[in-house]
Specification:
The complex is a heterotrimer of chains A (529), B (433) and C (288). By secondary structure, chain A is an alpha+beta fold. Helix content of chain A is 55%, strand content 12%. Chain A starts with a helix and ends with a helix. Classes of the chains: A alpha+beta (529), B alpha/beta (433), C mainly alpha (288).
């Protein structure tokens, strides 16, 4: 058999063996995300490489594996989240929320703030006993029991013999007094135990001290909440209330109890977006600007990039390498640094831009532009900086694309008498567009969601005066959804923000699909030269 | 031929499956002597070997962690525990505690800001902390900051509030009235007067709080916790203060500069005053500076927003009592607090530390005095809806950006309009949810 | 001797220099600002001075001696992660591009488009999903879970096909199929054609893709911050953002210095790689 086939089967064998080995492990950890991703990958790899068919797939599968795991899967997760009520107060599962509630203790008013020394004893059977030094007449001693044994426990008794006249502790026969260090090693066990004092009071460990004696405090014998799973009712024992669930929270006496839990809510988030009037107005405004911003930014960066690559596209031009190196530099500086530098340059009072434009201002007798403080100047600034950030990329790809256009075409045109400009527009440019247009579409999609720039440069501002929901003149859909996410009525609204993300994707998808249809036409016309 | 190949393939695949099924099938979630919790119950360490030391994981931001790390050795030795201090990006602690905690990988103790408490408590990820005897040593404003729904959720160790920097070579101090401030600027002949900065592109309700909160205006009323239904942004005092701010901007007392511009104006001597916090001391040292209280409003002391830092316990920790003990018995002691202060100087939240700091650092004492007049930023989740609208209103007044908005038809011509609008936006945001 | 005809020179070369220099200024000015501020005593981005007062090396010193700020470790990490991820990115992308360019199969265009469009999904909350996924991976395969460079690199590979493949495919399409035929006649199979004929010819575009990918990864903050908690594993973006950027304040001098140090190698590399992109092959010589 061919060497490549041997290699292939060996690889498959190892891969399958490894995956099958991992699956039980994954299940034990209840890692469902990982499981679904792994099963998909297993299926894909076996499907692709087991047979001789699907030759093309063999080339594409490696990349697809990564794309699935880190692009598709998160997108699917995002979609899932948009159908939930995930927000502040609703991030846990119902089970977790109930566990937390049931773990809460409470102290009746009159026993708040009572602190006393507490001593811990261990007997031969490794059972624990507490000694609570409440006051002169009450040194209560008894077995420390866990939560479920409280009801049947015997009450602690006053045992003055345990503390001698010098104030030292004398452990009873067969018992050992635990020091701070020992207590710490058993801390997570000891913290669950209680010394029952009477039907409604118990003592628990409050603070373990390394030097000296630990401190205890008094609590009610019942936990604050008890949950009746058969009837889905929560009881608040501290105020004797019955709390019913309203879908994602328990309500005690009309008030929501924190924490609530995450629950599937169907299309409620989407309905909110489209029907809630106070969101719709700003949403429309922001959508319009997002389109304008993305389109203009691509156009501007592309124009500059193209201009430069044409300018430098001459063989004997001197310093070509130097020019090219300098144009790539904006790309090399981390974006957040350059954006902040630009913010400084655009400072209306002391920034360099206004200093340079000063002669113009005095000549036309107008006020210096208040960059980033008015609607128009902020939008202009955003476009300017994004052009600066984006033109190196455009320059790179147009240079690359220009390389791939055969010289003979333009030379032939010259022979036929065409001028430089004509041969450019009729021959070079269409060919360029064939290979570049998808990238322009991609750049459009990227800038449609260019959160970093907007956030760092203008913060979305300046604020739109009078809108019901806080929104700014340079907010794009994604920065607006971020605002919604962090400043919703009550904390974060991830579910809602996710639904905005899905809608954004829907828009981008639609536009891209349509644009690609158009470029298909281009390809057909020009692709065969 | 083809059939042979296919047969061969099938056999190979089946074989590989069989081999692994025999070998690896009995694997369970064993091993790991570490106390890394799997999402189910933690397995108790087997009693055959001596148990590994109990481990407490502490999350803190860079500077704090660097200060804390060398100090925990003493506690580790005395207590026989292993304390792991993990360095985190400050903002990330807030988010990660909420994802890692429920998944069993969170910290036991984490150090963060008080305004997280509302969100964390609502999400159930932070455990109440009984301050006990230690509470008497803490300034009231610190405890308020960590109070939510009748419980306290953290031990406050540092506060932070703004005051007024002044350039000693230009002015002699900070007068108590704004009119006198203006007079001193005129006398000094500087271009700008007071840099009361705003943040980035948006406004900055934090820095501007004294301007609307000193005479009776407030965001949320406080009564053992902040009350989201009682908003005082548009009460008479708040409106009057907004108009007063407007007049201060109009007559040039308050400059229309953002943070960076205020800073460079102060550094370059173009403004004798800069209203900001203790973090800026390094930058302010470009000139010979002093710090004093912010001028009064109508005879009332200026009320800055106070930020409180504290140590909190994660409700998903398996060692809550130990975590609590670590905080109250070790972290809260004056020795540790002082060492922390020396490495990451912030305003002390405890009275015992304040006594030490006051003697050594009079500038810090000024900031602390300013903080003593302040109120903590409301820590409830609803606060998230406040920063935007209030910041925007302050920005409009500071930049005098009045006018009518073509899109919405709403007119904001005065400071009164601006702050009323902010109040409205906050109410609708909270109600609408 | 031919006299120097200014007009002729200008029409052919002069205007190019004019445009070129103008845009060099446009591109470079903010960068100069960063460089000079890295040496400034009280660096602040709101001032307008290109040449600020007070020359100091203290920002650079802060980055090179302080054990609390292992900047050069960060630099090394950044380059390590970015180079490895970019290399594999290009490799995967080229494999896929070859299939789309050379192999005939149903739905060729549609599937490539699908890949491109899928990649456009806004990554806004994707980070949470990735965190949870790797969280689970950490239990099983800790060497590639959270807190590892390997895990981070794998995530970056998610973007390997899609745009990259489209661009590479476009370039490959211009490589004449006659070369493939010639190789086939010599008995080569698909993979050999790929490695021996197509890939070498596609080198210019591969270099471009490498650079673009590299820059994207090197400036990434969010994913790296999610993955890397140990200070010694941080990349430059994470380190600078965590240590030097505060709520209101940011140590601009150090940030500027760190940008200079981080960008210098890339800029130099690009000058070096330039030849690959521009020199060598032009599409014309491929035909015939």
């Amino acid at each position: 058999m061919k060497f490549s086939s041997i290699l292939r089967y060996a690889f498959l064998g190892i891969f399958n063996a490894g995956s099958v080995y991992l699956i039980p492990l994954i299940i034990t950890f209840e890692s469902w995300f990982l499981l679904s991703v792994l099963i998909f990958i297993m299926f894909l790899i076996n499907f692709t490489y087991l047979t001789d068919k699907f030759a093309a797939l063999k080339w594409i599968t490696p990349g697809v594996i990564f794309m699935f795991s880190f692009v598709v899967f998160p997108a699917a997760y995002n979609t899932y989240v948009s159908f939930t009520n995930w927000s502040t107060g609703h991030i846990l599962t119902k089970t977790q929320a109930i566990d937390l509630l049931e773990a809460r203790t409470y102290t009746p008013e009159d026993q708040r703030g009572v602190e006393f020394d507490i001593y811990i004893f261990e007997d031969e059977n490794q059972e624990y006993y507490f000694g609570a030094d409440l006051n002169e007449n009450e040194f209560l001693f008894g077995k420390a029991v866990s939560q479920d044994l409280i009801k049947e426990a015997t009450f602690a008794r006053h045992e003055p013999s345990l503390k001698n006249s010098f104030g030292e502790i004398v452990p009873p026969e067969g018992f050992k007094l635990l020091l701070g260090k020992d207590q710490i090693n058993l801390a997570n066990k000891l913290q669950e135990l209680s010394l029952v004092i009477d039907t409604s009071t118990r003592a628990q460990l409050y603070k373990i001290s390394v030097f000296g004696s630990s401190t205890g405090r008094l609590l009610s014998t019942s936990q604050r909440y008890s949950y009746d799973s058969d009837n889905d009712i929560l009881y608040d024992n501290s105020i004797n209330a019955t709390c019913l669930s309203d879908g994602d929270n328990f309500l005690c006496n009309g008030e929501s109890v924190d924490p609530g839990w995450r629950v599937f809510v169907g299309s409620e988030n989407y309905k909110k977006l489209f029907s809630n009037q106070r969101i719709r107005g700003p949403l429309e405004l922001v959508t319009k600007w997002t389109f304008q911003f993305a389109t203009l930014t691509v156009l501007l960066a592309f124009s500059v990039g193209l201009l430069l690559s044409i300018t430098l596209n001459k063989e004997k031009l001197k310093f070509k390498r130097l020019y090219r190196a300098l144009y790539i530099l904006p790309y090399a500086i981390p974006a957040f640094v350059s954006v902040l530098v630009w913010k400084g340059l655009l400072n209306p009072d002391y920034g360099v831009i206004n200093t340079w434009l000063d002669p113009l201002y005095t000549f036309f007798d107008i006020e210096p532009i208040k960059w980033l403080k008015t609607k128009e100047s902020a939008r202009a600034a955003v476009l300017l900086v994004n052009t600066w950030l984006g033109f190196p990329y455009m320059f790179l790809i147009t240079t690359g694309a220009l390389q791939s256009i055969p010289k003979e075409l333009t030379e032939a045109a010259k022979v036929d008498g065409a001028t430089g400009v004509q041969s450019f527009w009729r021959i070079t440019f269409p060919l360029l567009m064939v290979s570049i247009s998808p990238l322009l579409i991609g750049s459009f999609a990227f800038n449609f969601n260019n959160f970093t720039l907007i956030f760092l440069l203008s913060g979305g501002g300046p604020p739109v005066i009078g809108s019901e929901v806080a929104v700014g003149w340079t907010d794009i859909l994604i920065s607006f959804s971020y605002r919604l996410a962090i400043s919703g009525g009550r904390g974060n609204l991830f579910g809602l923000a996710s639904s905005v993300t899905i809608i954004i994707f829907g828009i981008v998808l639609l536009i891209s699909a349509l644009s690609f249809r158009y470029t298909k036409r281009l390809e057909r016309i020009y692709g065969n030269i | 031929m083809k059939r042979n190949k296919l047969q061969y393939l099938v056999i190979l695949v089946l074989l590989s499956l069989v081999v692994t099924a025999c070998g690896g099938g009995s694997d369970t979630a064993s091993d790991s002597p570490e106390t890394t919790e799997a999402p189910q119950e933690t397995l108790a360490a087997p009693a055959t070997t001596s148990p590994p030391p109990v481990k407490l994981v502490v999350w803190a931001e860079e500077k704090v962690a660097t200060a804390l790390d060398p100090l925990v050795g003493a506690y580790e030795a005395a207590a026989g525990v292993d304390i792991e201090v993990v360095v985190y990006d400050f903002g990330q602690i807030r988010t990660d505690v909420q994802t890692a905690g429920p998944a069993g990988e969170g910290p036991d103790v984490f150090l963060g800001a008080h305004d997280w408490v509302g969100e964390l408590a609502a999400n159930g990820v932070v455990a109440p902390l009984d301050l006990g005897a230690v509470a008497s040593d803490i300034f009231e404003v610190g405890v308020q900051g960590f109070s939510y729904g009748g419980e306290v959720y953290g031990f406050p160790y540092a506060t932070e509030a703004i005051a007024m920097y002044y350039n000693k070579s230009l002015v002699g101090g900070v007068p108590t009235s704004w009119a006198d401030v203006k007079a001193s600027c005129d006398a000094a002949g500087t271009e700008l007067c007071v840099g009361a900065p705003g943040g980035g592109g948006g406004g900055d309700a934090y820095h501007m709080h004294p301007f609307f909160g000193s005479t009776g205006g407030y965001i949320f009323a406080f009564d053992a916790g902040f009350d989201p239904s009682d908003i005082g942004l548009d009460n008479d005092q708040a409106i009057a203060s907004a108009e007063y701010l407007d007049s201060l901007v109009k007559d040039g007392t308050v400059a229309s500069t953002d943070y960076g511009a205020s800073m460079s104006a102060f550094q370059e001597g173009r403004a004798p005053y800069w209203m900001t916090g203790p973090w800026a001391r390094g930058d302010a040292s470009a000139v010979d500076y002093g710090v004093a209280l912010i001028p009064q409003f109508d005879g009332n002391a200026a009320t800055p927003f106070v930020g409180v830092r504290g140590a909190m316990v994660s409700s998903f920790s398996d060692n809550k009592v130990l975590a609590q003990s670590f905080i109250l018995d070790f972290f809260a002691t004056v020795e540790v607090q002082e060492a922390m202060y020396n490495s990451d100087p912030r305003l002390p939240a405890t009275k015992s530390l304040f006594a030490i700091v006051e003697a050594a650092d009079p500038i810090a004492a000024q900031f602390a005095a300013s903080a003593a007049n302040g109120i903590p930023m409301p820590n409830i989740p609803e606060m998230g809806s406040v920063w935007g609208p209030v910041g925007d209103a302050m920005l409009i007044i500071r930049d005098q950006n009045y006018g009518t908005n073509e899109e919405t038809g709403v007119t904001v011509n005065t400071a009164t309009d601006a702050i009323k609008l902010a109040a409205e936006q906050v109410r609708t945001a909270i109600a609408g949810g | 001797m031919e006299t120097f005809n200014f007009l002729k020179w200008f029409k052919e070369y002069g205007w190019r220099h004019l445009v070129g220099i103008t845009f060099v200024l446009f591109a470079i000015y903010p960068i100069l600002f960063v460089v000079t501020n890295s040496f400034a005593d009280f660096a602040n981005l709101a001032n307008s001075k290109l040449i600020p007062d007070g020359f100091t090396l203290k920002h650079y010193k802060k980055l090179s001696g302080d054990p609390l700020v292992p900047y050069f470790t960060w630099l090394f990490n950044t380059y390590k992660v970015a180079i490895i991820a970019s290399l594999f990115n290009v490799f995967l992308g080229t494999l896929a591009a070859y299939a789309f360019s050379r192999l005939q199969f149903k739905g060729r265009r549609a599937s490539l488009l699908t890949l491109v469009i899928v990649q456009m999904f806004p990554a806004f909350l994707a980070f949470v999903a990735i965190y949870l996924l790797f969280f689970q991976i950490s239990d099983i395969l800790p060497f590639m879970g959270l807190g590892t460079h390997l895990g981070l690199i794998l995530v970056y590979l998610g973007g390997s096909i899609g745009f990259n493949s489209w661009l590479i495919k476009g370039f490959m399409d211009t490589i004449s199929p006659s070369l493939d035929e010639a190789a086939k006649v010599d008995g080569a199979n698909d993979f050999q054609i790929f490695t021996k004929v197509i890939a070498p010819l596609a080198r210019p575009i591969l270099v471009v893709i490498f650079v673009i990918t590299f820059i994207g990864i090197y400036s990434d903050y969010i994913l790296a911050a999610i993955f890397l908690k140990d200070k010694n594993l941080w990349t430059v973006a994470v380190g600078i953002n965590t240590v030097f950027v505060d709520d209101f304040n940011a140590d601009w001098g150090v940030i500027a210095a760190s940008s200079v140090l981080a960008a210098a190698p890339i800029a130099t590399l690009f000058v070096f790689f330039q030849k690959q992109i521009t020199g060598g092959l032009t599409a014309g010589s491929v035909k015939g």
